[in-house]
Amino acid sequence: MNLFHLISQVEKLDPQAMDQLVSRRNIFTQLAGMSKKAALVAAPLLIGSAFNQVLAGNKDVPAVFNYALLLEYLEEDFYLQALAKPGLIPTGAPMNAIMQIKKHESAHVALLKGALGGAANPRPSSFNFGAAFDNYPTFLAFAQALEDTGVRAYKGKAGEIKEAGNPNDYLTVALQIHSVEARHAAHIRMMRRGAAGGGIMQAGWISNAEANGAPQVVYGPGNPATTFPSEGNTTQAGLNLVTALGTTYTAAEVSEAFDEALDEATVRSIAGPFIVA
Amino acid sequence: MPKSVMHATRAGQPLQPVGRRRFLQVASVATASTALLISGCNKDDDTPSAATVDLGSGDVGVLNYAYALEQLEAAFYAQIIATPYTGISAEEQAYFTSIAKHEAIHRDFFKAAITAAAPGNIIGSLTPDFSSVTFTDRSSVLSTAKTFEDLGVAAYNGAGKLLKNTDYLLLAGKIVSVEARHAAVIRDLINNGDFAADDVVDASTGLDKAMSVDEVLMAAQAFIKEKITATNVGK
């Protein structure tokens, strides 16, 4: 394999990988410090492991970030359409909250596009959310579904970014977006609880796999279900927390204490119908 | 941060009675100008030095770090349930009851999981120090709860990259979003609409905070009697 061709390819794919390459180039300094014989033995190992990391980073992380970008495009457009419909969102606290959330989704789009650079996928031409904006309660139910799905989607990708060598500390960025989506989800859930004319009796967290009017698939198991169980899951790290901790806690409480991840295919099956092209 | 901490930090010396030891902890997070004051106070520290707890190294160190924070949160909410603040509403009582359960579950889970994975390396039970919290006062309780939840979110966000085992990373991810939900609800109780306000979610990047272990412990130490050391966490 042509090493320098590889370096230039990586640089083209992701200019921000330069930081990494600088440290990778220290390999050559390390090698230079060894005796000739030792260097000959060590070179394939050192170079191989370093470039496998870069390659993995460039293969997987852009894919993960483009997936995240698609979800952020979708969320941003969802709130843009909602805000564009006169009278849908009550003025005051509800309007302010939705504008704050929309601000974050737009910031996430910009951030992910910036990180991806030339590798960023374009925005789909349009999104169709069907009946989502027919009335305020329906809009909030959709919003809850999108936010809770977003939380599950980011959570499902943390391991891949880690395994790709966490280039540019993108794992931390993903986690920093993930917790913001959870804050959004909690607030939307509370908005539904506080809605005029009798709200949904739910809190900011997910109890069992209760959908409360949002699509059930958002809270159900993914694939494989062993890795991506439903939100009602009560077993963590092989421990059934309802029984293993001294039967102090109910299944509902245990399920609330842990959010569950969701795989990309299941998330895409939830989000896909809204993407026109 | 609780109001008393803010006072002590701003003025460079305590405006209201706080324990000497606690003052030193507060001062240690203040600006460099207080450094002289700290060294001046160290010699006549009137509290016996507390036991030191080291979190350990590698992934177990990160798990112990999470366990320590969950112990702190669980103890805090248990106290709220035991002595609810004046004028607590039924709804607030219900939220705190749930949050108290979640944090106790996190604590007990880490205890069980670390005991299973590395029985010789789990830290013991920590002694909380809530002397800065007025549990009868709603605003004192809520502002401390906000501090703990935002800190928990920033701690998990910052610690994710330290974990080598992706199973542990996923577990941390499952917990951090629940902490973020708590943070949002607590913030909304203080002021509806503050769930992801600009003071915690950067307005231009839309990112929540991520803090290093040292930064988190600097803030958390004031609430824990034992001295926590974390030199090798994640290493």
Automatic annotation (TrEMBL), chain A:
SUPFAM superfamilies: Ferritin-like. Pfam families: Ferritin_2. InterPro entries: Ferritin-like_SF. This is Ferritin-like domain-containing protein. It comes from Rhodocytophaga aerolata.
From TrEMBL, chain B:
SUPFAM superfamilies: Ferritin-like. It holds the Pfam family Ferritin_2. This is Ferritin-like domain-containing protein. It comes from Rhodocytophaga aerolata.
